[in-house]
Amino acid sequence: MIGTVHNSYVRGNAIQQTYNRAVTIHAIHYLRIINNVAYNTMGHTFFIEDGIETKNVLENNLALLTRRSWSLLNTDNSPGSFWIRNPDNIFKNNHAAGSERYGFWFDLDPNSDGPSYDPNVCPINTPLGEFKGNVAHSNGRYGLRIFRGLVPREFPCKALFYNATNLADPYASNHLITATFEDYTGYKNGRNGAIFETVGDVRCVNFKTADNLLAGIEYSLTDQTVEGTA
């Protein structure tokens, strides 16, 4: 919990047979987590904790065999190899395979929580950093899950609104921001390759899904409600 760490990294490690995660990213920014292998871990493997964490880079990591834990958080009963509490981070070319539940799980709350609680930080409406080239296969339920919601907007802690009568004021409107998930591959997952639950302008580009039990890609609800003057 030391804030900005421009020169810090977790790189080139093999982490195996843990009883409490592999890497925890807790109230820090700009950390680089690159070229690591995590095997046979318990609880969320690569773990973003409070939802205040931004600008961290997770690239070329491999998570294999993520197991349930009954002694950590309630959500560790259904673990994700990559448990993501704030979308404003970079996820590139990671692989998640063999989790008992999820590969990549965006579990986004209205505000950051724990010791990092801040009413001015709103992960569920924060624009996506980057999600590109990731692979999820052979996971128990979903390869990629956007849970609760993801409705990115210019001002994340304000309602969506558009005021056509005051175009000169940049703060007169609060527009949706596009979140693009690119070059994702999801196969042989127990339910869906990817599922998006209550999302705004969220787009899938160059997705490849195959041999998932229920569906390749599922959108549960698209929410683009705009309040204010039309």
Give a quick set of tags describing it.
single chain, 0% helix, 7-stranded parallel sheet, 230 residues
**Total number of helices:** 0
The radius of gyration over CA amounts to 18 Å
Structural class label: mainly beta
Strand content: 35-45%
Total number of domains: 1
Return the string of H and E elements: EEEEEEEEEEEEEEEEEEEEEEE
- What's the oligomerization state? single chain
Instruction: Report how far the terminal alpha carbons are from each other.
Output: 43 Å
Q: Report the average pLDDT across residues.
A: 93
Report on this structure.
By secondary structure, the protein is mainly β. The protein has strands at 3-4, 9-11, 14-16, 23-25, 28-29, 32-34, 37-42, 46-48, 57-59, 62-67, 80-84, 90-92, 95-97, 102-107, 130-132, 135-137, 142-147, 179-182, 185-187, 192-196, 202-205, 208-210, 215-219. Mean pLDDT is 93; it is low at 225-230. It has no helices and 23 strands. It has one domain (3-219). The strands form four sheets. A seven-stranded parallel sheet has the order 2-6-9-12-15-18-21, with no helix packed on it. The chain has a seven-stranded parallel sheet with strand order 3-7-10-13-16-19-22, with no helix packed on it. 0% of the residues lie in helices and 38% in strands.
Write the layout of secondary structure elements.
Elements: E1 3-4, E2 9-11, E3 14-16, E4 23-25, E5 28-29, E6 32-34, E7 37-42, E8 46-48, E9 57-59, E10 62-67, E11 80-84, E12 90-92, E13 95-97, E14 102-107, E15 130-132, E16 135-137, E17 142-147, E18 179-182, E19 185-187, E20 192-196, E21 202-205, E22 208-210, E23 215-219
